[in-house]
Sequence to fold (421 residues):
Amino acid sequence: MHKIHTLIFASLTLVLCSCNTTQKNLKNTVEIPQNTPLAPYMAEAEKIHDDIFSVDSHTDTPLNFTYKNFDVTKDNSKTYVRSCVDFPRMRTGRLDGVFLAAFVGQGNRNEAGNMRAYNRVNQIIDSIHAIVQRNPSICGLALKPSDAYRLKEQHKISVFIGIENGYAIGNDLKKVEYFYDKGARYITLCHTKNNDICTSSTDNTEGKGVSEFGRQVVAEMNRLGMMVDVSHISDESFYDVLTLTQAPVIASHSCARALCNNPRNLSDDMLKALAKNGGVVQMCILSDYVKPSVPNPEKDKAFNAFREKYRNYDSMTEKERANVHEAYNKLEEKYAGQKATVADAVNHIDHIVKLIGIEHVGIGTDFDGGGGLADCKDASELKNITAELLKRGYTKEQLKLLWGGNLMRVMDEVAKKASKS
Ligand SMILES: [Zn+2]
Fold:
């Protein structure tokens, strides 16, 4: 989940409130013309996806569950503006599994605020379970990698649960186990603001990192076998976590700061430390993390005017809404050229692979939380990333690691460490 993003209709404000050996095979991306079409690589991309397990480690799709015209089992691209992920589009994009984030924005750090956050995350997790229970022929809940591999054989989509913002546990350590038992397999320690666990990359950190309570949270997650997600946390918190954790960690949706200087991204030193820990960084395709955005007052004005014009979206008829969607898509198209592209995003993968090796990188889109590229707008276009990687000389084995093998390795290792403690 991105910081509060403003592109969503005002009437929908509820939404927010977003190895060395393998390296030798890689070509130098600088020499590759970025405008080569991806089409010649698409058939091979699809063939490879048939054989590998692919997973997106972070989407905010549950934010859409509360809207009556959204159905995750149907293609919502024509009926629900801004929606990026549903099962049919995952099929088209060849994505086998997804971590649905149970997200809660940071609010007051007191008893009432903590209770609200806890209830909100519970509600989202219950809605995820309900979807899985209602659709046993299409999907299944994945609690461990072997579940996901079994579901792939059964041609079913794997639904994983992650919690975005440790605010959901407030200051009660027992809630970590409670959420683990409800199926959550990672917790992003904080969101855009500091919380009782640690400081955020986008809050005034004052040089502080993980709190005393946060130290206990990391130990508890290690004990249970729950992945610690370091996306969103401050640099100080990041290094604290790496000192504290007994197991590999993940960054569920972050990019390389060397290519896009954003506090949400990881510096080269951080990436090296992550590799030493055995963890994995899941490249995010939120445009602002991929490529520095150029200020555009005209675009801001156009979107503000759009929001104002369609303030009554919730009370519109289906036909009126269809017109709004068309108008929105036109607006998106008009400014799409300014969004980062698949080639820009794959530059991050190249950079990370060269720096720390293919074993430490994956993909976490942040779809439905602000994620999306000019040429990868939703889950149906994810195979464009594979095609771009093939164009640059990545092999099937490398794609297997990148699309899920690495994250599943970390998940297994975290679980193994837990059983030992
Ligand atoms: Zn996020």
In short: The two ends are 33 Å apart (CA to CA). Residues 342 and 385 are 6 Å apart (CA to CA).
